[in-house]
Amino acid sequence: MLTLDTLNVMLAVSEEGLIEEMIIALLASPQLAVFFEKFPRLKAAITDDVPRWREALRSRLKDARVPPELTEEVMCYQQSQLLSTPQFIVQLPQILDLLHRLNSPWAEQARQLVDANSTITSALHTLFLQRWRLSLIVQATTLNQQLLEEEREQLLSEVQERMTLSGQLEPILADNNTAAGRLWDMSAGQLKRGDYQLIVKYGEFLNEQPELKRLAEQLGRSREAKSIPRNDAQMETFRTMVREPATVPEQVDGLQQSDDILRLLPPELATLGITELEYEFYRRLVEKQLLTYRLHGESWREKVIERPVVHKDYDEQPRGPFIVCVDTSGSMGGFNEQCAKAFCLALMRIALAEKPALLYYAIFHRDRPL
């Protein structure tokens, strides 16, 4: 069966334009407008989801199947394009009967066009195919719009559900735009109504216990002394003695190829005394390929540089991951359990805002799960 993506390519229907129109209409819907006004920090997070929506819609249109009636009509249209005018005149009654049987929107207009002209000319043949193609484009566009409308309703329902969850938790967990964005990502998971109501409950308890917040903020590495240069720092002169290699005749360090006559190896001098090798010796001398002793030494000199004056300052360090183990057994009931879970919530707020990993382990009695 013909796919909708193939039909769009055959008829040159721009599905990208239809997708963009649908996304713009979704973002401009009254439900989202009210939500953006109430929770402005989540607007950017939702906008970041637009590429994912666009890709999902493309995939949906690509996999959608065209109805059998429209597929048969498209196949008939393609075959008619290959017919010459005399062949088209012979096939015209079968084409009109096929359009009528398929309940094509073009069927009635096609019959009226044929009845209004007693003679089928080449120009009428071309006009018939052009109008038939326009009818197919309208049908393909309508099919795309119907499919995108279904996807829009489903996507709007999903977004509204996630907005409800994010809106409930935003005052508790989202301290900045980073936390708001990660909160929106978390809302895509499986979280039931009772779950986030418990989070709201512990969030209210945490607001009544500022000591737990302060304790959570002190956990993990936070600062270390570090030299931080400033753009407007003054320059100071710094002098130091540096050692560097020097070509002074202190000791033999190896062999090398050069044209240094004073440091020739005895075999090289021997070739100079052989008449047959004399020109070879001069060639290697010119090309600096004679084997000579390599003499190296070391020397010290004073190096003067200017560098900015730096002072020790404290540089904020990223926190490491949090690993939280919570005891929810019978001995932790009541106020103790509330404090433990509220403290976990405080760490979760930090993890959302500063992006460290947070691993949570619940330790409980087998008859009393968390």
Textual characterization of the structure:
Helices cover 58% and strands 18% of the residues. The protein is α+β, with helices and mostly antiparallel strands and 370 residues long. It has three domains: 1-191, no CATH class; 192-223 and 317-364, no CATH class; 235-308, no CATH class. Helix 15 links the parallel strand 5 and strand 6 (358-363). Helix 4 crosses helix 10 (177-186). Residues 176-181 and 365-370 have low confidence and may be disordered. This is Protein ViaA (VWA domain protein interacting with AAA ATPase).
Helix content percent band: 55-70%
Please give the order of strands in the largest beta sheet. Answer: 1-4
Distance between the termini: 52 Å
Total helices: the number is 15
